[in-house]
Design goal:
Layout lengths: L1 H42 L4 H11 L7 H13 L6 H21 L1
Organism: Martelella lutilitoris
Protein name: DUF1476 domain-containing protein
């Protein structure tokens, strides 16, 4: 009987972990979409859906968020837009908070 309780508890923790990771993924994807919209506006890009998919895909290059930062910095540099990493990092953080708040309301 105690093996069953342990198994049930273990399954509940696993299910909670999967749910938390899925929620985190949705928040990050939403953050990246918001970031892409902001960057696309600065870059003068009208292909927002395509650009957003590029930004979201960049997040899968390496663990962490530096890959998105590097992509945006490269895009800004190629477009001749002078913007520092700190500004982009601050936007990333602000959009992450906004995406998190939005997901809490859903």
């Amino acid at each position: 009987m105690s093996g069953s309780i342990f198994t049930d508890r273990e399954r509940a923790f696993e299910a909670a972990y999967v749910q938390q990771e899925a929620a985190r993924f949705r928040v990050i994807a939403r953050r990246n979409r918001m970031l892409a919209a902001w960057a696309a506006d600065l870059l003068g890009r009208e292909d927002l859906e395509f650009y957003a998919s590029e930004v979201i895909a960049a997040d899968f290059t390496h663990a962490g968020h530096d890959d998105v930062l590097k992509k945006l910095m490269r895009d800004f540099a190629e477009a001749g837009i002078e913007i520092d990493e700190e500004t982009v990092r601050m936007k990333m953080q602000a959009f992450l908070q906004a995406a998190s708040h939005q997901s809490e309301r859903i």
